[in-house]
Write a structure and sequence with these properties.
The chain is α/β, with parallel strands linked by helices and about 220 residues long. The chain has one domain: Rossmann fold (3-Layer(aba) Sandwich), CATH 3.40.50.1110. The protein has nine helices and five strands. A five-stranded parallel sheet has the order 2-1-3-4-5. Strand 3, helix 7 and strand 4 form a beta-alpha-beta unit. Helix 7 packs parallel to helix 8.
Length: about 220
């Protein structure tokens, strides 16, 4: 009995340590828990990427005629999504995969548009390795006011990813970024929360209008 108790305590300590040391461990465990309670339907539109998707908690209400699975996890960069592809893509047998990621990549010193392009290319290849015929849509990196100094690099990455997508079968580039500027070229301020990073409902309404024609 004492030995079983020690094993149990060891397992608790291991899981706690894992959660502390592995980025996004808890978020992925939450997805697994949700799936164990009610597994999402097949042939749905799967959203993957960073907090712009994570915070779009009512995304289903924006697209009521679509089946949506949201597996964005906050703060993630492309390497994180690649690392967890077996958890956030492979189980779901989606009709379409929609990616929003790359913005957080530039928060790491030394990240270049070319690096972001190669990561995006890698992610698409990994999706295709499992689901070769599933359409993929890649959403442009958005211009967040709090990250204005990175916008030139983000625009360059967007252009490179758009070119990649144009040469990729069953893939679509969705340019939501241009719709987030005022006519004078400044970024709309009233579509963001107070952090000037994450969008509010007005911002998501803009995205809905741009995205809808491309969703399967």
């Amino acid at each position: 009995m004492k030995r079983l108790s020690l094993i149990f305590l060891f397992l608790i300590a291991f899981v706690t340590l894992k959660a502390q040391n592995v980025p996004f461990f808890n978020e992925i465990q939450n997805f697994k828990k949700q799936d164990s309670i009610s597994f999402p339907p097949k042939k749905a539109i799967l959203l993957i990427g960073s907090s712009t998707f994570t915070n779009w908690k009512d995304v289903q209400s924006y697209f009521p005629d679509k089946k949506i699975i949201n597996r964005g996890f906050g703060g993630s960069s492309l390497p994180d999504v690649i690392n967890y592809i077996g958890n956030v893509v492979y189980p779901y047998h989606p009709k379409q995969v929609v990616i929003y990621c790359g913005e957080n990549d530039f928060m790491a010193a030394g990240t270049t548009p070319q690096m972001v392009l190669e990561r995006a290319k890698n992610l698409i290849s990994l999706i295709r390795a499992k689901y070769p015929k599933v359409p993929i849509a890649y959403i442009s990196i958005k211009p967040s006011p709090s990250r204005a100094k990175y916008i030139p690099q983000m625009k360059e990455a967007n252009a490179m990813i758009a070119e990649l997508i144009s040469k990729t079968k069953r893939a679509t580039y969705i340019n939501t970024a241009d719709a987030m500027y005022n006519p004078d070229g400044t970024i709309m301020q009233d579509i963001f929360l107070k952090d000037d990073l994450h969008m509010n409902a007005k911002g998501y309404a803009i995205w809905k209008k741009v995205m809808e024609p491309y969703l399967k």
